[in-house]
Amino acid sequence: LTVGTVPVITSQPMDVNAAVGTNVTFDVNATGTAPLTYQWQKNGVNLNGSTTSSLALTDVNSADSGAYRVLITNAFGSVSSRSAGLSIGGIPVIATQPTDVNAAVGTNASFAVNATGTAPLTYQWQKNGVNITGATASTLTLTNAQLADSGVYRAQVTSPYGSATSNGATLTVG
């Protein structure tokens, strides 16, 4: 009589959002009586040669999107991990950069950025590299500009697949 334990997953593979052309790794940790064997699957189909506790995908593209799981087996049984989703998208690209603005004291000044990429896109404007609270639209309008508002403004655009930062645009108030 041989005594042992079936495999037990202690750390499941996690969902990943990845930009086209990047590398992705799914990991699983398991305990149980050795030896443990691994077989990774994509959408329920075995991936040839993917038989370790990690699955590395290189230079991913839209064809790599799907659900990945691993079947772990030993002499006493087997267990399947949760399915981890891989979603592929495009990182934001700044299509139109903000431009320098000269403003008289007390007037309004606006900066705009136009970006493309896989939605949803979020925006965060910065002044001299510091986030501006509440400045989260594609356009930043400063009302009643004062001398202290002079500086360099830029936008950071983020999607689930990465981020891009615009060029800095200078506001000169005087």
Characterise the protein shown here.
The model has no long low-confidence stretch (mean pLDDT 97). The chain starts with 7 loop residues before the first strand and ends with a strand. The protein is elongated and about 90 Å long. The strands form 6 sheets. Strands 2, 5, 6, 8, 9 and 10 form a 6-stranded mixed beta sheet that branches. It is mainly beta. It contains no helices and 20 strands.
Features:
174 residues; mainly beta; six-stranded mixed beta sheet; 20 strands; elongated
Number of strands: 20
Number of helices: 0
- What is the C-alpha radius of gyration, as a whole number of Å? 25 Å
Could you name the ranges where pLDDT drops below 50 across 5 or more consecutive residues? Answer: none
> What portion of residues belong to β-strands?
over 45%
Distance between the termini: 89 Å
What spatial form do the alpha-carbon principal axes imply? elongated
- Biggest β-sheet strands, sense, barrel: 6 strands, mixed
Summarize the amount of helix as a percent range: under 10%
Alpha-beta content class: mainly beta
Mean pLDDT over the full residue set = 97
Topology order in helix (H) and strand (E) letters: EEEEEEEEEEEEEEEEEEEE
Helix/strand layout:
Blueprint: E1 8-11, E2 16-19, E3 24-27, E4 29-31, E5 37-42, E6 45-46, E7 54-57, E8 66-74, E9 77-80, E10 84-89, E11 93-96, E12 101-103, E13 109-112, E14 114-116, E15 122-127, E16 130-131, E17 139-142, E18 151-159, E19 162-165, E20 169-173
Parallel strand pairs: 2-10, 12-20
Antiparallel strand pairs: 1-4, 3-7, 5-6, 5-8, 8-9, 8-10, 11-14, 13-17, 15-16, 15-18, 18-19, 18-20
